[in-house]
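> run fold HTH araC/xylS-type domain-containing protein
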Amino acid sequence: MKVYEAVDFINRHEKIALSKHANHLQEPEHTHTFFELVYIWSGSGTQQVNAQSYDVQRGDLLFMNVGDRHSFQAGPDFTYMNVLFEPDFLSEQLTAAEAAHNLLSLQLFQEFHAKLNKPMPVVAFRGKRMVEIEELLETMYREYEEKRSGYRAMLKGYATLLLAMAFRTMQDHLHSSGLNGAYHMLPQLLTYIEQHYDGRITLQDLAKQSYYSPYYISKVFVECLGFTFTEYVQQIRLREAKRKLLETADTVEAIGRSVGYADKTQFFRLFKQAFGMTPQQLRKMGRSTDFHSK
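> ok
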């Protein structure tokens, strides 16, 4: 069995590495000398951790400890993000031997240790938690790619937050009777929205995709995410508009149309409500101060 060494995947000065992968159909069994978190971004597949098989989909996070055995098979639309870090990334006092036993031995995570004993190999993020962890991972990936001043300190903080979110969700699952059907359905619905947000998309469209009624899907959004279907579509559109304003030279009107707003006035009004400034003001601020988030 192949052993993946940290030196081959992680810069020794950074002690952490993030990467995105698409259509990686198979990975033979291996082990490694570092921690590995795998977040499933789209598609589905089968992951094996220490000879135990898990069917995974969007919203699932795999946690591989130092020395765990891991392999996977996936479909053609499978995409995921890897977060790799060395045992002493979060604490220089954590030795490789201690890490191999349990990351929860860190004082930082002691409050989880009594109930969890050890991390679960797979934890499912659904509903609002899935949206939150994806936002966190995107922020981490941007920090890692841009390598702006202080990025390593930022990544250490974000990694701590990511692990705390994972451990809290693992702990909650221990006391849950199981995720309901709505939570299992949500990742596919959100993926469909993200692929069609730039056109006219309705609850009826989602009903055709899921075989649930528009009324039921509407209820799922409110109960699982905390906001309505319309609010979620608007959030996706405005997030993409913000990205295009900062990363392209397209006109404001063209960007509004490209994210689904044929009405220029509506686009301007919703954008200002969401970000507290007009599209032109955000673009100007981004160019002058390297503005990235609000």
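The mean pLDDT is 84.
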